[in-house]
Design a protein that fits this description.
Chain lengths: ~375, ~375
């Protein structure tokens, strides 16, 4: 039995002010082709289908279209759960109808933990839920943390689970030891939000969502598929992939991954402005990617972002690299502003800090003339 | 062929600060029972299922639950469209799956105007759409008004419609001559938003939503079902009902209506505070109803709303009936405030206006003492 494990689509995501929906469409169209090629017995989506509880309407239309292609056009069962970014209630609308097409969607945790059976594999769906909700649902006041909650849920599942069959848990959680990225929303404010990996021991495979790297956790039976796309520059070096699991009757499985090429990659580049603007440098790369650029130049630069955008239209973030000595100078300058200095003295300091060049006597004389000129104009007003 | 025509559920509606969701649940549970009794071939919901594009999550859950009961538990086809309060895109999610269960939901207008056939009747679904969207969809720059848009849509439908079969249009529009209530959102700012009744001539029956009174339009073939519940005090006297249509093969039909009792009625009562508080008056009525109370008392009343709420817990709106002479006095008082008058003079005017009693010499003397006392205390601070 073969299934594809994916998660964290975050449809409708906004990254540095740019809506990712068209990039997500481009990527998902390839994903649908991959499903058509692989002909899996199921596609598992482990939460965070949307980036927020009320996603933009084009993200709603995109999800609807892609799931319909996979489930109905390609006649592929889907197993999906809500994540911490999804609205449990909004995502759940219609679930009861979808089941008829073997689209098993559990947006909101409820007390029915019976699995869905697909070609000999039992899928246990555990959508993201706050510990308080689990405490209420299970009528168990001892549940306070995500770990308590998952322990209780898995305990409940084990009551009826047949351990001799291949059992897959689909969950959305922060499993202890997992590596985080910048685009995941913290699960608990105060408290760790963590769940112990050992809890998932009863399952043949645990298909997780939440952490965005496919390498977030090193565990032979518990896996994060990783997010659909890179959603922060902290993920720039991650190799995103789709996990394909071939589950055997004894619960053992083979795993392989496939990668798809996004419309635009998300990368970081660094160097001097002149270097980055040099065709010798940028002719060899995909300048349309989403970029974070760090400039090494120390002096003043006139409108570097617009210069860079002529070559790299999708710069999302620009940083200047300031050496420690510059930082010191900066603080000197700040303190200077608070003293009474002549305009010329202030400008002289400013010039030297911003350009790292000498404020020569010729320049000083020119600047003095300008200041004098401005003073005169002011006094005539 | 029998179908039930309803519309304007407005799930998640807030009336004078009170969420109607529990009242809507109470009412819809009875509606489901009515469907179970009547065993219609279809239930038609002519738009505004929700009150707003992003309804509260309990309204989402309520709609999901009720539609599932009707469609799946009772095995009754549903024909539903989006109204001007619904989000076309959000409502549409999942429509493609629902069709398999004969739940025909058209949240967003598209260029496919082929009907859904249920037991010999053709249902043409025309969800609410702005004229601009229809102009774009039809690639017809001459479309500017709702009337233009509907004319174009119906023209398109007629190209393939068999006029010898019973054809039903399900629409959400303001048909010319319809009577409005306060809880309908105006369709066009500037311009009338109106659609001529004559456009619907080709149809055996036009099942409309938008206007909240079942009597909004007097027309033998075009009907507003009216809203689920009363959603404003301007609807207090409306008799809400569910329309039941028995359609014959020749397109003629019989119509009857059934009424359901809401959890709380919405009514207006008026009288003197003492009258309304008299058990002789209130023992004979359902004091838990949503009420707008108009008090006839002219003088000052101490905290009348809280007194009334002890008897009528769901007062939503309280008004004082001011005779024209009072209004005049009121404006006199307002203008007085702007002049320089002594505190005693001001109070004397105020007392007479609020109580319609004389400010006797005894009272004047008491008030003067109080003012004197306050002045002393102030000067000691």
């Amino acid at each position: 039995m073969k299934f594809i494990h994916t998660a964290d689509w975050h449809l409708g995501k906004l990254v540095h002010g740019v809506y990712m929906t068209e990039d997500q469409r481009y990527f998902l169209e390839q994903f649908v082709e991959l499903v058509a090629e692989e002909k899996p017995d199921a596609v598992v989506i482990a939460g965070d289908l949307y980036d927020r509880s009320v996603p933009p309407t084009d993200a709603v239309e995109l999800l609807n279209e892609m799931l319909f292609k996979i489930n109905v056009d390609l006649n592929t069962p889907i197993v999906a759960i809500g994540g911490n970014h999804d609205s449990a209630e909004r995502l759940s609308f219609g679930s009861s109808w979808y089941k008829k097409s073997q689209f098993y969607l559990s947006g909101k945790l409820n007390s029915d933990f019976s699995p869905f059976h697909i070609n000999g594999v039992n899928f246990y769906l555990v959508p993201y839920a706050e510990p308080g909700l689990v405490r209420h649902l299970m009528e168990d006041d001892s549940i306070h943390s995500h770990d308590d909650a998952m322990k209780r849920i898995i305990g409940k599942i084990e009551e009826t689970m047949n351990p001799d069959e291949p059992n897959v848990l689909v969950g959305h959680a922060f499993v202890l030891g997992g590596k985080t990225s910048d685009s995941e929303r913290t699960l608990s404010v105060g408290g760790s939000g963590c769940v112990s990996a050992s809890l998932f021991e009863p399952f043949s495979y645990t298909a997780l969502g939440h952490l965005h790297s496919p390498d977030a956790l090193k565990h032979e039976k518990i896996r994060y598929s990783g997010s659909l796309l890179k959603y922060s520059f902290s993920e720039a070096k991650q190799e995103k992939s789709i996990s394909i699991i071939e589950m055997k009757e004894n619960g053992q499985f083979d795993l392989r991954t496939r990668s798809l090429k996004p419309n635009k990659d998300m990368r970081e580049i660094a160097g001097y402005l002149a270097e980055l603007m040099d065709p010798g440098f940028h002719n060899n790369q995909d300048c349309g990617d989403y970029l974070k650029i760090t400039l090494h130049d120390e002096g003043a630069l006139i409108d570097p972002i617009n210069k860079l955008r002529q070559i790299y239209p999708n710069v999302l973030h620009l940083e200047r690299k300031l050496a420690i000595t510059d930082m010191k100078k900066k603080s000197t300058f700040t303190s200077l502003k608070e003293e009474k200095k002549s305009e010329l003295e202030l400008f002289s300091k400013f010039y030297e800090e911003m350009t790292t060049a000498d404020f020569t006597e010729e320049k000083r004389s020119m600047m003095a003339d300008i200041i004098e000129q401005v003073r005169k104009e002011e006094s005539l007003k």
